[in-house]
Amino acid sequence: MLWEMFLTFFKIGAFTFGGGFAMIPIIQQEVVEKRHWVEEENFLDTISIAQSSPGPIAVNSSIFVGYQIKGVTGAIIATLGAVLPSFIIILLIAKFFYQFIELEIVEKVFLGIRPAVVALIFSTVFNLVYKSRFSYLGLGVALIVALIIVFLNINPVFIIILAALISVIANKLKGDNEEWDEE
């Protein structure tokens, strides 16, 4: 199982261009749909936690998925599988890149990869929104928060802290109201 997990995450790391968000649909396909190692709802929770944790989302996702499957050993194996291809590719690029950077074909390859990366990221966002059972209120709040961050140039960390405080207060008030209803 650990070897299969390593190979799965190695393949994901090797064939996904565009960073962590581009890896999410591939991880989902491999560990949720194809191998059934993680349930869909747990995977969505994992992505939420991975995104809010410090560090690259692909590495965090690998850690959390590996941990769900095989504990600490699984987290280590999945993470190694996900990051080793990038590490190896970067070493090779660092060794040979300057010899080929001026070639027109190299420029065209990078220009061709960009739209695919945008499509993968859009696909990820669409799938996460569709499967997370957003209400219209939740979708409206997300849109308003995105607009506030973009147009008022407010640091997203402050928005996250404010949202957490509002959530704690709302759930506390909701809990207090349920206690009153029981009496």
Describe this structure in words.
The chain is mostly helical and 183 residues long. The chain folds into 2 domains: 2-133, no CATH class; 134-183. Helix content is 86%, strand content 0%. It contains 7 helices and no strands. Helix 2 (20-34) packs across helix 4 (57-100), helix 2 crosses helix 5 (104-131) and helix 3 packs across helix 4 (57-100). The chain is globular and about 65 Å long. The N and C termini lie far apart (52 Å).
* Helix fraction bin: over 70%
Low-confidence stretches: none
Question: In sequence order, what are the helices and strands, one letter per element?
Answer: HHHHHHH
Radius of gyration: 20 Å
Helix-and-strand structural type = mainly alpha
Shape: globular
How far apart the termini lie comes to 52 Å
Question: How many domains make up the 3D coordinates?
Answer: 2
In this structure, how is the largest beta sheet organized?
A: none
Number of strands: 0
Percentage of β-strand residues:
under 5%
Number of helices: 7
Q: Which whole number gives the mean pLDDT?
A: 82
